[in-house]
Amino acid sequence: MSDAATLESLRLADSFLPVGTYSVSYGLEQFVQDDRIEDADDLEALLATYLRRQVGPADLVALRAAHAAAREGDLDALCAADRRLRAVTLAAEFRESAQQSGDRLLSLQTDLRDDPLLADYADRVAADESPGNYAVVLGAATGLAGVDEREACLLCCHGFVTGLLGAAQRLLSLGHTDAQRILDALGAVMTEAVEDSADRTIDDMTPFAPLVDVLAADHERAERRLFAS
Where on the tree of life does the source sit, at the highest rank (predicted)? Predict the structure, then answer.
């Protein structure tokens, strides 16, 4: 990749990016409240499940499709991947969180980059013709910036895990060193998830983590919540 693409990938992976992912836990809060996650080992196992069963077979497939569509200037294909990802995401909170963070990233990118495809995509999202999921916006942004597709997938996995580790530090007695140990240990799982997504089309999006979906539904009705999802 070019230096500019590398720097863009670092910017998009930075927790400093103002897209609101700090406010979501993607069901982790309910796992903690139900005493299903009590220590770092439990947390690592759950995050590995997320990567293998949800992020890899759904988000990364959509990201790859959006990345290719952006490089080819195919707005219809971009929106098709976007709608498909929404259709296979069962938990309402997950759909809403993905759309909210995606909307913020898309707004940020259109402010920073004068690109006709992004502008047209933003118009479709504003008209409710496409949901604007975070993974799809990230795929489009990285594709247009010249970030390698595999690098973009790893970026997505890294951002997802670090976001949930940040949430875990507010929900559990998890220190920074333990968080870094988990992040390091999950490197192989991230690579596995990226490789699993490589040969899938948008018709092959098959996220399957029933307990995650059930607890996400419970979280929607919780009386007290620290996180939006």
Answer: Archaea
